[in-house]
Structure formats: structure tokens, C-alpha cells
Specification:
alpha+beta, 7-stranded antiparallel beta sheet, two-stranded antiparallel sheet, 39% helix
Length: 204
């Protein structure tokens, strides 16, 4: 029995060494697999980004018939009194009534901060880092509260959506004020202004 003890010890040592070597080999194999998986993921993300960018450019090409955006007219006289003003975010524009049909031409697809000013001449939208635009009063069609536009979904009533005409298109543009409580006042004021414009046009 005693003579078997060194042999058993040797066997135990060999088994331990073999297991350690296998474990080390497994660790190396797992590390290589992880690197390969990570590289594949990066390539997949790059491909998706490229496809999205190409789709964006293609959509812009299809919307090439959209006229250049109007800008606030320069008036040498006294400044128009401000009816309402708002700071917040611009969440995008779509074809009116189709909240996923994003319009990207002339920078309208870029989300950005926004400063809105409403006067009796129309709605002025100033966007730091993106194209500003102006909606003349006669081009305003409707204002409402909504929860989503251009793939962006917020809480119910979390968006002020302004419908306006530009060229041959009716466009929905979505804004969110830094003070969401202002939305109702904007909807009421804009729709009142639109109704008055329609009454004036009808009386002519």
C-alpha cells in the first residue's frame, strides 16, 4: 500500500497540470472568440450606419423638388410685436399626416435646439447649428398637440405640431418647449391666427 502512494501523488500532479493547461488553452480560445465577435459587431454597426446615411441621401434626392426654405423678411421699419416666443427643441418634419415620412431636404431632417417667435407676419424658427426657416402667416394651416413625429415618440401631448404649406407640400413640423405647459397656449393662438387669416382671405 505504502509503495503506491508516490505513484498516486504523481498521477494527481499530472492530472492537475493537465487540467491547468486545458483551462489556460480554453481561456486563450475564449479571448480570441471575443475579439472576433467584437470586430464583427463593429463591422455590422458600420454597415448599418452606412446604409442609413445612404438612405438619408436618397430621401433628400427624392425631395429635391422642395423649394428653398423661406427666411424671416428684413423690415427696415419698426419690428413686429411678438405674440409668443418659445425655446425648446425641433424634432423634425414630415409629410402632413404621415408621422414617419420624414422630410430631410434643406436640413429639415436634423433635430436641433430651436427658438420660436410668433408675430402677426408668421412663425420664425431659429435653429443654432442648423438651417433657420420662416413660415409666413398665410402658409400656416393648423396647430395641434401630438406625441410623435419623424420616428420620435414622446408622452401624449408632448409635441407641438405645426402644419404649414411649402411649395406643393403640406408639412408637419414638431417642436417641444422647454416648458411643456406652453403648448396649449401656442395651439390656441396659432389656430386663432389661422382662422383670422382664412376669414380675411374669404372676405376678399
Amino acid at each position: 500500500m505504502t509503495s503506491l502512494t508516490p505513484l498516486a501523488a504523481q498521477i494527481a500532479t499530472d492530472l492537475t497540470t493537465g487540467l491547468a493547461a486545458e483551462q489556460k488553452s480554453a481561456e486563450v480560445t475564449d479571448w480570441a472568440a471575443r475579439v472576433g465577435w467584437l470586430v464583427g459587431l463593429v463591422l455590422f454597426v458600420a454597415l448599418v450606419y452606412w446604409l442609413m446615411r445612404e438612405g438619408w441621401k436618397w430621401r433628400g434626392t427624392l425631395q429635391g423638388d422642395l423649394p428653398a426654405l423661406p427666411v424671416m423678411p428684413d423690415e427696415p421699419g419698426a419690428a413686429r410685436p411678438v405674440v409668443l416666443s418659445m425655446t425648446g427643441r425641433y424634432h423634425g418634419s414630415t409629410t402632413a399626416g404621415q408621422w414617419l415620412d420624414r422630410i430631410v431636404a434643406h436640413g429639415l431632417g436634423a433635430r436641433s435646439k430651436a427658438e420660436l417667435t410668433l408675430t402677426d407676419t408668421g412663425l420664425d424658427v431659429v435653429r443654432p447649428g442648423a438651417a433657420d426657416f420662416f413660415v409666413p402667416r398665410g402658409q400656416l394651416r393648423e396647430a395641434r398637440l401630438d406625441k410623435g413625429i419623424a420616428g420620435k415618440v414622446l408622452s401624449e401631448g408632448g409635441l407641438l405640431v405645426v402644419t404649414w404649406k411649402h411649395g406643393d407640400r403640406l408639412i408637419d413640423s414638431g417642436f417641444r418647449s422647454d416648458r411643456a405647459a406652453e403648448h396649449n397656449e401656442w395651439v390656441a393662438t396659432l389656430n386663432h391666427m389661422i382662422d383670422k387669416s382664412n376669414d380675411t382671405e374669404g372676405a376678399r
